[in-house]
Every structure is written in C-alpha cells, then in structure tokens.
Design a protein that fits this description.
The complex is a heterodimer of chains A (541) and B (127). Chain A contains eight helices and 32 strands. In chain A, the strands form seven sheets. In chain A, strands 13-22-25-24-23-26 form a six-stranded antiparallel beta barrel. In chain A, a hairpin with a 5-residue loop joins β10 and β11. Chain A is rod-shaped. The two termini of chain A are 29 Å apart. Chain B contains one helix and nine strands. Classes of the chains: A alpha+beta (541), B mainly beta (127).
Chain lengths: 541, 127
C-alpha cells in the first residue's frame, strides 16, 4: 500500500518534473503546465505593461493580450508576430488577435516574438510555443490519444496525464504490492491498479475533438483560468502597494440647516394670522432678511376688552376732569401759581397720550419678518388661523449652507475632511466643524459643514458620513470584495501569478473603511490581487 | 489495493513538484555594459546599445563564457521612441552579432532578439 503510493508518486513526480523544468539553475518563468487534455497548446509571456497568451487552435494562433497591472483586455492594438513564416500582422476579432499558423505541426517547438502597439504602450513579448506530438491526425491542437501519451511519455504529460502510461505504472505498483503480501492476489491487485490508475485519468482522452479551454483547480488549490474565461468572468486585478492610509469611520448622520444660515419665524403674541399683500410666501420661495412674511392680529380676550373699555372710560373721565380744572385755573390766574397751571397741562397731555395709545394698541398687528435670507423650507400659515406665541410659522433655510450632524459612538480625532453619502445619491465633501462633549443617547454629536453647494440636499435627510480620522495605518489597501473566505474560514485573496494562473493567498486583514480593508500580512507589495470577479474565481472547482 | 485518496495524494505531490517557481529573469548588467539575459536554454545574450544606430549582441554560454558567433543569424525587434524597429544582425569576430538600426538606439532599450544557431535551432532573448 505505502510502497505503491510511493511508486506512483515517484513516477508522476519524475515525469512532470522533467516536463516542466528548463535547465539547471535557469528557470525561465515557464508557466505551470496545463492540467488536462481539454486545454489547447499554449504559451504565455508578460512584461511590465502587458501579458499575453498564445493559443494554437485549428491551424491558427489566437493571441489574447491584457494589461499587466489591472488585467484589462487590450482589444485595440496593432499586433505583429515574428514566427517561422516571417512577420505576420494579426487580425483582431472580438478582442482576440488571430494569425494563421500553417507551420504549426505537431511536435514542433516554435519561438514567437509578438510586437504589440496599443496606444502609448509598445512592447515586444517573446514566447516559446510547444505543440504536442500527434501521430494519427496531425492537426495542431488535436486531442492526445492514450497511445501517443504512452509513447511520448514525459513530454506529453502536461497535456493529459497520459492514461496508459499511468496504467502501466499502476500495474507495476500493484505487482510490487501484491508480491509483498500474497502470491495469489497478484493478478487481482495488479488489475485493480490498472483500473484505478489507468481508467480514472484516462477518461478525458476520449473527450471532444477540439479542445475546449476549461478553468480548473490544481490539487494545491491554485487555479488555471484560460484568458478567455478570465474575460467572461471580468477578472480585474490591483497592483499592490504599501502605503499609509488614513483610517475612516462611518457614522450615521442627518442633514441640518447651518445655524447661522437658517431661521424660524415665530409670533410673539397670540393672534390671528393675516397674509401680507401678495399672500403668504410659498414653499421654496426665496426671501430676503427683513421681508414681511405675515401679520398677526392680536386676539384680545373678552375680559381684556372690558378692562380696556373701563380704562378708556376712566381716562376719558380723568381727561374731562383735568380739562375742566385747567380751564378754571386759567380763569383765576391771579390767585393761582403758574406752576400749578403747568402741572395740570402736563398731566392732561399725559392722559391724552395714554388714551390715544390705548386705541392704537387695539388695532395694531405684529409683522412677522424673515430673520435671514434664504428659501422658505416649511410653512404652517393659514389665513385666519390663531397662532399661539412661539409657534413656528415659517422655517427659512439657506440652501447653500447645510450642516450634517453625525453621531459618534467613540471618541475620535477627526481629520478636517470627510465624505457624506446619502442613500442612493452622490457623495459630497464635508468639512469637520466640531464635536460635542456631552452624550446624547450614548453617542457624541459631531458637526460637519457641507463644502460647496450640494444639490438635492434637504434638512432632516439621513445619510452616512465617512469621516477620516487623524491617525494613519500602513499596509495594502484592497477592496472589501477582494477578500474571500477560504474553506477553513480564513481570509484569502487570489493572486494573479502567471497570465493564466491564480494562487490563493491567506491574508490577515483589518477594516480600513466602508469599502476597503487593509492587508496586514500575507501579501507583499508588487503583487497582483484579484479585485473584480474574485467571488466567481472562488467557485471554480 | 490503491484507494482513490492515495491516488489523489500522488497527484498532489506530482503537481507540487511540477509547479516550479515561475519567476521571470531580471536583466543583469553584462561584462560589456549592456543588459545580459538568457537566450533560449543554451545561451546568454548581452545587448549593447550606446545611442548610435549600431547595436551589438555578445553571445555567451550558460556559464557566461564567450561563444563564437560564426554561423549564427539574428534579428532584433527593438522599441525605439514608441515604435518597433526590425533589423538583422550579422556575426562578427569573436562572439559578436552586429547590426545597424534605421534609427539611433538608446541605452537600455527594450525589445527582443531572435537567434538562429548554426544547427538551425532558434532561441529568443527578451530585453
């Protein structure tokens, strides 16, 4: 049992090693071999700007070129291929560049230099395309049969773990095992070895005639994803850089009017509301500071009216008395001091003024004026309505001056800049104004002012404030969607190591802000991390 | 008997062994002051450009010992000023391949050189 395992491993290891390795001490960055017979012969290359995959299929070469850093497909480019047939210009078709390859005979290894001119990027990529030998039907990219596999042995393995070769290995392994146990079981065990090793991997060799490139997962967990599949999955990568990122926190917030740029209109006495000439201002009407928005006719209670009437009669009486007295004084000027006459005159003037005032007070109404310039944000005025003192009749807001009141549940040191994100709206910049020290519902209110004119804001609107904190943290910032859960529950990211290969990397992350997380350990700078389509990549089995 | 798990373990081992590190070569400074890279699996090539139109490629073996260039043919595809230029290189004594580009080639130029050996074997060097 153990010896058979050892033997099988040894055979496989020897065979695959000889196929994958270059010469001693000089590894050429060759990509890992394709995993099964369902993959067409291919070669890849990458430079600092571009990466390329060349696939031999049906007597032609398909060249797929992507940008190196973000995996964005390059579809508009001039591509020339230096191959055995000289310099050939490729035709672009659906994002794939095609070159006829009549020279693509099986078993041949061809050096290709591909010149790419894509906008400002010009590059020469070199690749060596090894075509598998195929005897019966010499078509480029044909499927490998078991017979070929057993004949060509080592070199064929990358294109399909040659079924019959393995079957023989299994047979040998079975013989060894059986011999070590019982003689009688020799035949049975050996046959079982043939079955398990030979048939299981040999099955794909009888698959479709033209190889379909299928994404596959290697036993070590890394993935082979053909470029064409990468484009369908929309895979995008991020070139990692270590930088200091300011920490941000998300706070629930509410739009409030700037206390200096807004006001309320309240009557100071109870009374009946009366529209000014032109009517009450409507919602959204622009008003200037000092504009009369409404009048309040003081409502006088019945008891007050009686008192007033009484006062009036009393005053009338006193005036009459005083007038009489003054008249008398003037007739006897000789026996009366001048001072007495003057006193009586002053008293009479005072009484008359009080009487006149009483009459005017009855008819005077209070004018409600706008305290600030702005837009009428709320109206509670109906003609004839009795308004209590302190009722808010109008609310006036300057639409260019809004604040945001957010609630912070921890004591933070805020940086001067922040972002406000209303639900389903565009985010807008905020400036930190100040934070309170007294708790309100176990939170501290923090004020931000809206920088510039934010369109579509309204007082009372709920939003999320992404507030930047003064402290910074070093690490690699990646979008939250790039970090996935592995089978063991650990966080992992997919690294794009070769043009068609992705390797899972276990990482330790810390939250950075609402959209990004910080990778603290597991990935170095200068790597390519899958950000777009990472979830789909994780589903490949 | 070989259980399926055993088989898969064997496969895993094989895959691990075959997944050789895939680090590309960084060009290093050659003895002639140019970028020295691998050309195929048997040679090293060093490309020397000095701002003139003349481009020299020095051939050496894997141990960086000079290799006679007699019988070799080569073609250079270099990116100069954002445009690819192609020209042939002719062998010169003792281990050089010399060519003249249509435009002056600056130092540290990017591109590739395709070599054809006396035995017809081809190799490429990417700079």
């Amino acid at each position: 049992m153990h010896r058979s395992l050892a033997l099988a491993s040894l055979v496989l290891a020897l065979v695959t090693t000889s196929a994958a390795r270059g010469h001693d001490g000089h590894d050429h960055g060759a990509p890992p071999p394709p995993v099964s017979a369902t993959v067409a012969p291919r070669a890849d290359a990458s430079s600092a700007d571009l990466e390329m995959v060349v696939v031999a299929r049906g007597g032609a070469l398909e060249i797929l070129i992507d940008r190196f850093r973000d995996n964005q497909p390059v579809t508009d480019a001039v591509v020339e291929v230096d191959g055995p047939a000289g310099v050939v210009k490729a035709t672009a078709e659906g994002g794939v560049f095609r070159v006829p390859a009549p020279w693509a005979e099986p078993g041949r290894s061809v050096d290709l230099a591909v010149t790419v001119q894509a906008g400002d990027v010009v590059d020469v990529l070199t690749a060596t395309l090894s075509l598998p030998p195929a005897e019966p039907k010499p078509v480029a990219g044909s499927v490998v049969t078991p017979a070929e596999a057993s004949e060509t042995g080592a070199t064929m393995l990358p294109d399909g773990f040659g079924g019959w070769g393995l079957a023989l290995a299994g047979f040998a392994a079975g013989l060894v095992v059986a011999a070590s146990f019982r003689r009688r079981a020799v035949v049975a065990t050996a046959l079982a070895g043939v079955f398990l090793l030979g048939l299981a991997p040999g099955a794909p060799t009888q698959a479709a005639e033209t190889p379909r490139d299928l994404a596959q997962r290697f036993p070590d967990g890394s993935l082979f994803v053909p470029k064409s599949s990468q484009r369908i999955l929309g895979l995008r990568t991020l070139f990692t850089e270590i930088a200091d990122h300011p920490t941000t926190v998300e706070l629930p917030g509410r739009v409030i009017p700037d206390p200096d740029g807004s006001g309320v209109v309240q009557p100071s006495l109870a009374g009946r509301l009366k529209p000014p000439p032109g009517g009450f201002p409507r919602l959204g009407a622009a008003v200037a500071a000092g504009d009369v928005l409404a009048f309040v006719e003081p409502a006088v209670a019945a008891a007050d009216v009686t008192t007033q009437h009484q006062q009036a009669r009393e005053l009338d009486q006193q005036i009459a008395l005083m007038e009489r007295r003054l008249e008398r004084y003037r007739q006897i000027t000789n026996s009366i001091t001048r001072a007495q006459i003057e006193d009586a005159e002053v008293e009479l003037t005072g009484l008359k003024a009080r009487r006149a005032n009483l009459e005017r007070r009855e008819r005077a109404s209070e004018a409600l004026v706008a305290p600030v310039s702005g837009v009428v944000a709320a109206v509670a005025a109906i003609a004839g309505q009795i308004a209590e003192p302190n009722t808010i009749v109008f609310r006036i807001v300057d639409p260019r001056r809004f604040w945001v009141e957010a609630l912070a549940y921890e004591a933070h040191a805020f940086a001067p800049r922040a972002d406000g994100r209303p639900a389903g709206g565009e985010s807008f910049p905020l400036a930190f104004v100040g934070s309170g020290l007294s708790d309100r519902a176990q939170a501290v209110p923090v004020h931000f002012s809206v920088s510039g004119e934010a369109k579509g804001l309204r007082a009372g609107q709920l939003l999320t404030v992404a507030a930047t904190l003064a402290e910074t943290r070093g690490g690699i910032a990646v979008p939250r969607a790039a970090v996935l859960r592995g089978a063991n529950g650990r966080s992992l990211v997919w690294e794009h190591t070769n043009p068609e290969r992705f390797v899972p990397r276990e990482v330790r992350v810390e939250p950075l802000d609402g959209e990004r997380v910080l990778i603290i350990a597991g990935v170095d700078a200068g790597r390519r991390i899958v950000t777009g389509g990472a979830e789909l990549l994780n589903q490949i089995r | 008997m070989i259980r399926p798990s055993t088989f898969f373990a064997a496969l895993a081992l094989a895959a691990l062994v075959s997944a050789a590190p895939a680090a590309a070569h960084q060009p290093r400074l050659g003895p002639h002051g140019g970028a020295l890279v691998d050309a195929g699996s048997h040679h090293h090539a060093e490309l020397v450009a000095d701002g003139s139109a003349t481009v020299v490629v020095h051939l050496s073996d894997m141990a960086d010992a000079a290799v006679p260039s007699t019988g070799f043919k080569a073609e250079a595809i270099l990116v100069v000023d954002g445009k690819p230029v192609r020209f042939a290189l002719e062998p010169a004594e003792p281990s050089r391949l010399v060519g003249t580009a249509p435009v002056p080639v600056p130092k540290g130029v990017k591109g590739a050189v395709r070599l054809t050996g006396p035995d017809g074997a081809t190799a490429q060097a990417k700079f």
